[in-house]
């Protein structure tokens, strides 16, 4: 393994160094003279590189996958221009020996093959190639690049939003969503770079025109003035060398221009160009049979020479034969398709019969059902604000509670009122609300300076009295001090509160397994100690984590939780006992959760449980035979007295918007007190133990507001 890594890094270093060396060498080529043999070699390399680039483009299915193409185009363009400078220098310094004696083999070969010793013909061909590049290929590719870049930038946000919608609906995973967003960003960056890269190609063509003209005129004048050549010899030599050099430089440039055009006009297909053309041009056999018939008819009309007639009839017959073969293939494919459909129907019928005997209908972990009037809130064409807020809810739950909330499935429910919604956890309704589309909910949070009239209602999350107002009165309500909430925010807030209060129900063994597996990647020792050494089961860890989440304690610090379980691994795995120990280990985190972050003194205000009530709770503990948490068996009088004592202390605090916090003397008493008040004060009262406050140390300052006494 080490040898392979060493080889990989060595190869990477060599390739990077080679590219850097080549880039510096190209720049120096603009200044340094080269010999004829070296010039021929570099020209062959230039042609080879352009052919490779052209073929790579043909075999690349998606343009954005070739993200290095703009930089490669720049590199090759500068290389070609450097070769132009070298060849110009070589022609001027060695052209006086005459065309036949000139030792630039590549330049002479192109001049002989293309121009055949006639500079006028070569120059015309050179001009035609330039016109094709400038007017047709380069201009078209530049325009397409510009449009693609503009549309890629304009559509990037909507594409990102569509990925978020797929993620929220559960059709893709988080990793797939990240990959899709990276592909969208890469595509946008690619087309933006190609918009500028096309200017390199067009600039290279224009530079080729000027270099050729300079070579032609400058070469003749230089030979006559400096090298004492007569005019006839200069005209016979330098135009041929110039045209050969110009054609030689324009061939790679033409290949790069065509490759650029092919790349920017490509779509988002995952197939290479050859496969795509093969599939799309095999759409119908009639196309080729009709084309063959037309060519055969042309042979009758244009019967000027026998050769022309033979060519037309032969090509027409070939197309008709190809169309006939394709028609037979279409019939075979159609018959095969019918057989597959029949087999599929038979399989579906068999599966249906099997399902009737043993139906399995899995429940969605989390599901938001919407009435038909609320479907616009998740319509991508109309903003779909709710989808974005659901993504934010899941992210916030992961940060605040340490719980990765499963994907929330959103479906319509015709049995609901059109403007009603329902949130379910594993098929059981956990909350329901009713909205008014086009209206805003206004809450009086205590800062209202002047009340306004509206349709009375209640906030579905906390049951606070509120009113509905139209959109035209929104600014008026905000000026008067109301908290104005739109329908998507109402649903999002309600869902957030439901997830927080039902986090223990959302967490299951599968989620615990995923957490343990993830932690094992970074902390394998503690996971091995908990799972292998002390044999904790997923069910036992699940009960402990659920006990924390039930009181809204974040399990994000899962490493500390597992370390605490390992510390008490030799003892019986009693969740009631272990929850208290884990809370003690998380004491600072828990206490800071209820401290005002803006308070420099970090004051923790609590109501202390009296020693009498603590002793009475301990005296009435009843253990469960099934190993579950013990309960307090108060008689009706004691139960009523305890609730009255708690209510008389916490209600005044709630009226002052202060969160009531009860301080119990021990972890065991703390959990029993929470059991006693959970049903009467769900989610509105916090119970801490003295051990948890002591674990926070000097980070919080305890303030006793009162005592719950008999």
TrEMBL record:
Species this protein is from: Treponema berlinense
Family: Belongs to the FHIPEP (flagella/HR/invasion proteins export pore) family.
Residues that span the membrane, as ranges: 14-35, 41-60, 72-92, 120-138, 207-225, 251-269, 281-301, 307-324
Cellular compartment(s): Cell membrane
Domain of life, per lineage: Bacteria
GO cellular component terms, A-Z: plasma membrane
Signal peptide (from-to): none
Membrane topology: Multi-pass membrane protein
Lineage of producing organism: Bacteria, Pseudomonadati, Spirochaetota, Spirochaetia, Spirochaetales
Official protein name in the record: Flagellar biosynthesis protein FlhA
Predominant localisation class: membrane
InterPro entries for the chain: FHIPEP_1, FHIPEP_3, FHIPEP_4, T3SS_FHIPEP
Keywords: Cell membrane, Cell projection, Cilium, Flagellum, Membrane, Transmembrane, Transmembrane helix
GO biological process: bacterial-type flagellum assembly; protein secretion
């Amino acid at each position: 393994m080490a040898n392979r890594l060493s080889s990989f890094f060595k190869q990477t270093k060599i390739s990077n160094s080679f590219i850097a060396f080549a880039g510096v060498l190209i720049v120096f080529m603009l200044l340094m003279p080269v010999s004829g043999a070296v010039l021929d070699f570099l020209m062959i390399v230039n042609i080879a590189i352009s052919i490779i680039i052209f073929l790579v483009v043909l075999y690349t299915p998606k343009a954005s996958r070739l993200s290095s193409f703009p930089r490669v185009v720049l590199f090759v363009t500068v290389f070609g221009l450097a070769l132009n400078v070298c060849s110009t220098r070589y022609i001027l310094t060695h052209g006086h020996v005459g065309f036949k004696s000139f030792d630039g083999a590549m330049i002479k070969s192109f001049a002989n093959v293309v121009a055949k010793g006639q500079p006028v013909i070569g120059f015309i061909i050179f001009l035609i190639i330039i016109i094709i590049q400038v007017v047709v290929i380069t201009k078209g590719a530049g325009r397409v690049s510009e449009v693609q870049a503009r549309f890629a930038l304009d559509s990037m946000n909507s594409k990102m939003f569509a990925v978020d919608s797929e993620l929220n609906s559960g059709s893709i995973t988080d990793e797939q969503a990240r990959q899709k967003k990276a592909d969208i960003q890469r595509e946008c960056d690619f087309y933006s770079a190609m918009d500028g890269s096309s200017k390199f190609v067009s600039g290279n063509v224009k530079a080729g025109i000027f270099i050729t003209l300079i070579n032609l005129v400058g070469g003749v004048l230089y030979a006559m003035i400096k090298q004492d050549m007569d005019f006839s010899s200069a005209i016979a030599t330098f135009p041929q060398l110039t045209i050969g050099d110009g054609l030689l430089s324009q061939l790679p440039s033409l290949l790069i221009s065509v490759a650029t055009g092919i790349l920017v006009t490509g779509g988002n297909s995952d197939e290479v160009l050859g496969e795509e053309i093969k599939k799309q041009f095999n759409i119908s056999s009639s196309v080729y049979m009709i084309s063959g018939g037309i060519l055969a008819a042309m042979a009758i009309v244009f019967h000027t020479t026998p050769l022309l007639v033979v060519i037309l009839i032969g090509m027409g017959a070939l197309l008709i034969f190809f169309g006939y073969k394709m028609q037979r293939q279409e019939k075979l494919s159609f018959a095969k398709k019918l057989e597959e459909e029949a087999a599929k129907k038979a399989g579906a019928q068999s599966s249906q019969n099997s399902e009737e005997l043993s139906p399995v209908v899995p429940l969605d972990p989390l599901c938001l059902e919407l009435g038909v009037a609320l479907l616009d809130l998740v319509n991508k064409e109309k903003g779909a604000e709710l989808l974005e807020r659901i993504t934010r809810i899941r992210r916030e739950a992961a940060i605040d509670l340490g719980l990765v909330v499963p994907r929330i499935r959103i479906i319509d429910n015709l049995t609901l009122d059109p403007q009603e919604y329902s949130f379910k956890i594993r098929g059981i309704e956990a909350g329901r609300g009713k909205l008014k589309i086009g209206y805003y909910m206004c809450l009086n949070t205590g800062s209202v300076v002047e009340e306004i009239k509206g349709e009375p209602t209640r906030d579905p999350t906390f049951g606070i009295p509120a009113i509905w107002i139209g959109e035209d009165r929104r600014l008026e309500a905000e000026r008067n001090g109301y908290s104005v909430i739109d329908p998507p925010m109402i649903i999002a807030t309600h869902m957030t509160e439901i997830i927080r209060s039902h986090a223990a129900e959302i967490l299951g063994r599968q989620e615990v397994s995923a957490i343990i597996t993830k932690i094992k990647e970074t902390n394998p020792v503690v996971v091995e100690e908990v799972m292998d050494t002390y044999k904790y089961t997923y069910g036992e860890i699940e009960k402990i984590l659920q006990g924390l989440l039930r009181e809204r304690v974040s399990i994000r610090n899962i490493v500390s939780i597992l370390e605490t379980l390992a510390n008490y691994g030799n003892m019986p795995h009693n969740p009631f006992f272990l929850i208290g120990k884990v809370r003690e280990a998380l004491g600072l985190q828990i206490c800071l959760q209820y401290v005002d972050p803006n308070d420099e003194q970090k004051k923790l205000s609590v109501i202390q449980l009296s020693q009498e009530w603590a002793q009475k709770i301990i005296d009435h503990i009843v253990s469960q035979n099934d190993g579950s948490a013990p309960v307090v068996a108060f008689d009706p009088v004691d139960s009523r007295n305890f609730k009255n004592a708690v209510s008389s202390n916490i209600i005044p605090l709630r009226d002052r918007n202060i969160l009531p916090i009860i301080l119990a003397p021990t972890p065991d008493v703390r959990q029993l007190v929470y059991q006693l008040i959970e049903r009467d004060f769900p989610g509105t009262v916090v119970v801490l133990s003295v051990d948890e406050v002591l674990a926070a140390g000097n980070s919080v300052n305890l303030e006793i507001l009162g005592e719950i006494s008999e």
